[in-house]
Structures are given as structure tokens and as C-alpha cells.
Amino acid sequence: MSSSVEQGSDSVEPTPTQTEASTGSMLTVTIGATVPTGFEHTAAEEVKEKIGVDAKISKDRGRIYFPVTSDELHQVHQLRSVDNLFVVVEEYDHYQFKESKDETLTELQELASKLPWTNALEIWKLNRGLKRKKHHRKGVNQTKAKPGSETGDVPAADTEHPVPPQAMSASEGEAKEDNTPDLEISEQDSQQAAPEAKIIKFRVTCNRAGDKHSFSSNEAARDFGGAVQEFFQWKADMTKFDIEVLLNIHNEEVVIGIALTEESLHRRNISHFGPTTLRSTLCYGMLRLCRPQISDIILDPMCGTGAIPLEGALEFNSSFYIAGDNNDMAVNRTVNNVCHIQKRRANKDSTPGLPIDTVRWDLCNLPLRTSSVDIIITDMPFGKRMGSRKKNWDLYPSCLREMARVCRPGSGKAVLLTQDKKCFAKAISKMGGLWRRMHTVWVNVGGLHAGVYLLKRTGATIGQTTEEVNEPQEVVNTQEDQTEDKDPSC
Ligand SMILES: C[S@@+](CC[C@H](N)C(=O)[O-])C[C@H]1O[C@@H](n2cnc3c(N)ncnc32)[C@H](O)[C@@H]1O
Predict the structure, then answer these.
(1) Ligand 1 atom at minimum distance from 363 CA
(2) Are 196 and 299 contained in the same domain?
(3) Interval 16-36: pLDDT, tens
């Protein structure tokens, strides 16, 4: 079998840095990770810090790629900034799609049998083993946290839904190609070891973005999936699949991968979801922006389900967190989420309790001493699912003023998330220099374009500074190459 697709020039040559390599019995593969859009550099920073490798940030916003060896796989699952993980089978930076739809789809079909699947499938097997161990530790009766109407980040690009590969009857006894990896789910490997489960079930998911394609993602998934099925003799199953093959197409970038996560890792902390629960990966990005220090007092005065302080208490646990909300249900959810994690941790060794307290309060009148808080980090009502735009015109100035009162002048910081940018900008201008805007990261929250504003509490005293001023906003990019401070939608 030929090892390269018969296509002109270098159009389908794999990128050398992404090529899988074997180091003795240790495999080196490229891991792809979806991350909250806007926080790609934060995720790359975390990968460098925890795994020690440089990550490449994809042109396709919301994805990073980095090399790992097979023994580092468990570390990859510990990353806090990543939503979904996959192992790259092959990557093409400049795939030259044919003009006609038929030719392109035929080429995608041919590609399936020519890809270097072996190492990626080995990693998938290893990953399966890791998941088994984790489930054993958790106990088999563990139920999945059910998200409510949670706001989730969606890729900025138009992602289409997975479609079934064309049903194709595999011809019995057909000789396998030599490079077909020998892969069967052993009874030991499969928890539901039904005899028929020995045949691998799979699905192909195509995520496509770009307007210059002659085909839809459904067509690409169907034809590529059909060829994968024929090549491996796997069985297509859209719901109970063992392997999810990903076909990610972004303009001329094509990445074929195998999923390593069944559900996004951002659900890790929350068992009691609310109407606007923030994904933990986004919370992590917000927390990193304000760089918590040992013994910092960190406040989320509008905590909802407590997603931000919980992520902080788990990951930056040398600080102390106070979570508050004026809604009883929200406070209860936070308490339940904290308890749930405390219980989970109590089953392990002798891990100490979480450094977090929960209070019911009105943010505009906090029961806290002036200048007693180091960092305020919160997700404000956008006025869409929570609160209203009209109410925000009163709420935003009052809360910015009260936050300025409790935050330490000169050194205090705030990281505030909102989609109501106009109201927020106006409210800040009314603060007369209590807050200075340092940096903004533009993110996508449930399809809404929102800003994460890093503010610094200036030394200005409250009372002197309530009139509206056109304060020159000092813009300092605290993270090099991070998203521009300018709102592209304005
Ligand atoms: C966008 S939600 C926060 C969601 C939260 N980050 C989560 O992950 O669940 C905003 C929260 O602000 C709360 N809120 C609104 N006005 C408030 C006020 N004056 N004082 C305290 N909390 C308030 C709402 O009850 C709501 O829970």
C-alpha cells in the first residue's frame, strides 16, 4: 500500500513536527486539545509548566497541539485548561482540496487506508486503560454529573454535528492490509464484555470551518467514515462507540485524530449545575490571569454554582476563597458542589478540606471590611439568561464601587467576565479612576462574545472619585501575544 496520497506536490505531506515517532517501546505522539477560545496561550503556558513541552496554537481558534510520550498520558488528563483531548493520527497544514465535490470525497475515502493509525491507536488503548483505573477508583456506581442548561463555550467556527458513516457491509474474509493495526477489545478490556462487543464500534465526527469547501461536513464524515469502516472492519455506531475518529477541517488545515475524552473535562468540579454555570476550564483561565499568591483572599461575590472559587480552591489552594450570591438556590448549589468535592477527596488519603467559605449576601452591600480582599474574580450577569440589560445599568456601577471598597488599593485586582460590554465600559468610566483596565481577553461563552477584564485597583480613595471621567486606560498585555485588548466586535 502506498504511504502517501497520490496528490500534487506537498499538499498532503504530513507536517514533520507532527509526525509520530517511536522511541524504543515509548511512543511519541501529538496530542490535540480543545480549550476555551481566547485562552489558547494560557493553555500553552500550562502545558509548558506541567509537561515541559511547547504547544503549537492552531489557526483554528480554541485548539492547541503538543507532543507527549506515552508515559505522560496521565499528566495530560490532569491539565486544567483543556476541554477535550485527542491524539493526532495525521495533520496537514495545507491540504489542497480538489475543485469538485466528488473528487474531494473520493480522495478523503482513499486517505483512510493510507493514514499512520498505529501509534494513535496504541495511545487510545493506553488511554482506555487509564480510564478503567479511574472508574475503578471512583466505583462503578458513579453517575455522571448532568449539566443543566449550562452555558458552554462553543467553537467560534461553525461546527457541524457528527453524522453516521454510510452503512457499508464489510465483505467477510477480506484480507486485511498489512498496516491495519491489530486491534480488538479484549474481554478483560471491555467492561461490558458481551461476545458481540469484540467488534470495535466507532463513529466519525467532522468539525469543519471555512467557506471554500465544496462539501459539507456530513458528506465528509459519511465518506471518510465509510472508508474507515471498510479498512478496519469496524462497526459504525453513533451512540455506543468505542472509538471516535475526528476529522477536523479548518480552511486548508486538516487534522485526523482519535478522541481521548468522552465528555469535556470542564465538567470535572460541578455536580449541581445552574442556569449559567461557567466551564471550569474558563474559570481556570480567569484565575491564572490574576496570578493568585499565597494567603491571598479571593472573592467571587456573584458565585452562582461556585465554579470559579471551586476551581481556585482546588488548583490555587494556597489562597482563601469567599463565595457569595444573593440567590438562595445559587448559594445551595455552591454548598452542594463544595460538599460533593469534599466527599470525593475524603475518600482519598488525608487531603485537607477546601479553603472556601460560602455566604448569602448582596454584592452591593458586602459584610466585609474595607481594603480586606486581594482579588475579586466573578462572572457578572450578562442580562441575557441572568438578570436584565436594564438592571445592569444600576448593578454594574454599584458593584464596581463596592468591589473597589473591599479591594486593597494599590495592589488589589479584579477579573470580571461580562458580555454587556457597553454597560461595563460606561460603569468603569463612572468610577473615576478607582479601577484601571490592564488587559482584556475575548472569549466565547455559550456562543456569546464576552470580555474577561483584568482590572487593577488604583490607590484612589472612594468618595473623591464618583463623577464620570474619561480616564486614559492604560493597556498592558500581561500575557504576551494574548488576544488583543481591542474588542473586535466593536
Ligand atoms: C452569571 S451568574 C454567575 C454564574 C457562576 N459563575 C457559575 O458558574 O455558576 C451571576 C450571578 O450573580 C448573582 N447576582 C446578581 N445580582 C447579585 C447581587 N446584587 N448580589 C449578589 N449576587 C448577585 C446571580 O444570582 C447569579 O447567580
Answers:
(1) 20
(2) no
(3) 333 444 445 789 999 999 999
